[in-house]
Amino acid sequence: MIQPVKDSAKTHWVNRAPLGIRPYLQLSRLDRPVGYWLLALPGWIGLAFAGLSHGLAWTDLIWAALILTGSIAMRGAGCTYNDIVDQDLDAQVERTALRPLPAGTVTSRQAWRWTFVQISVGFLVWLALPLLAKGIALLALPLVAAYPFMKRITWFPQVWLGLTFNWAVLVAYAVKTGGLDFRAMLLYVSLTFWTVGYDTVYACQDMEEDALIGVKSTALKFGGHVKLAVRMCFVASYLLASLAIGVYFMWNLIVFTILAGVALIPFALCLFFQSSGRWHQSPEMALRKFKFSFYTGLTLTANVIILGAFIHSIEVAY
Are 44 and 172 in contact (CB under 8 A)? Predict the structure, then answer.
């Protein structure tokens, strides 16, 4: 019998899919959509951010759709690959024991085949990218390949995840501007801090079992200071995002960084909400706070789009 994975909603359509394909949909984590949104949103943020200098266009919607499609495919491929590598560890953790590989509903060979099917979809999206963006996208492959092993060798696998999950911001920025610059790198670092924060919250669900089986995480490393550490990551993310926008107006960097900080207050409030409460003592609350990351990323995207529209309306007026 194929059972829902523990942190998947039992009413999700994946858990009602035909039995023959359900394990593959579970391998892709389609029953937990927040993951592919957190991969796509940095790309959307990158498009919006590039719009500050290059304006917004209807073609951005096409790029946004391609980014989402590629994110669903490559997140699914990455999760399937991760489960192949981690199947022995997953069998020892209650939250992951019902995943298809440890549960025995698919074999490793079938999982590898499914990985390459999903990579093929991602490849089609990659073909649509401009040449420079193609090259930048390829540079993410070593990060993706190494990620499943990070929890075995470092206490900071969340940092590696942040570097990996937010690579789309660089790809999207290059798609729209034709290059990369210091501003894009600041935004990339900002979003990396954001990811370290929300994935530390996520890791709090498994702290006891991870400690028993030898899996490392920032949640375990920070220990009793985990809540403070997450807040510091979120503060760094907010400040660096504000600075990245302020750098657009280098002739008055301090003033415009402050103004950008004001414009990003909704983003800051979302970060504050995510870091508040006793999530570090409750796996259920930790999961809810982690899932709220979707709204945090969407809020930042909207903030930057609105700010860009405001800036260009002033430019047109004057």
Answer: yes
The structure's pTM equals 0.91
Here the tokens at position 148 are 């499943």
What pLDDT was estimated at residue 260?
87
Could you tell me the CATH number of the domain that includes residue 251? Answer: 1.10.357.140
CA distance readout (Å), 72 to 65, 138, 145, 215, 229 = 11, 17, 17, 27, 30
Query: Tens digit of pLDDT for each residue in 126-176?
Result: 999 999 999 999 999 999 999 989 998 999 999 999 999 999 999 999 999
pLDDT computed for residue 115 by the predictor: 95
Position 8 in a domain:
no
> Over the stretch 15-35, which tens digit does the pLDDT of each residue have?
888 888 998 999 999 988 999
What backbone phi and psi angles, to 5 degrees, belong to 58? -65, -25
Token readout for 94 is 């209650």
CB 275 within 8 A of CB 234: yes
Mean pLDDT of the chain: 90
In a domain, 71, yes or no: yes
Tell me 5's DSSP state.
P
For 278, the domain range is 18-317
Residue 79's contacts (CB-CB under 8 Å, 6 or more residues apart) are 27, 28, 29, 35
> How distant, in Å, are the alpha carbons of 65, 123, 134, 184 from that of 128?
12, 9, 9, 21
CA distances from 100 to 23, 107, 111, 127, 236 (A): 6, 8, 9, 31, 37
Evaluate whether residue 286 is within a structural domain. yes
CA–CA distance, 123 with 33 (Å, rounded to integer): 21
Contact (Cβ atoms closer than 8 angstroms) between residue 183 and residue 244: yes
How many angstroms separate the CA atoms of 156 and 170, rounded?
A: 22
Note whether residue 100 is domain-resident.
Answer: yes
Number of domains in the chain: 1
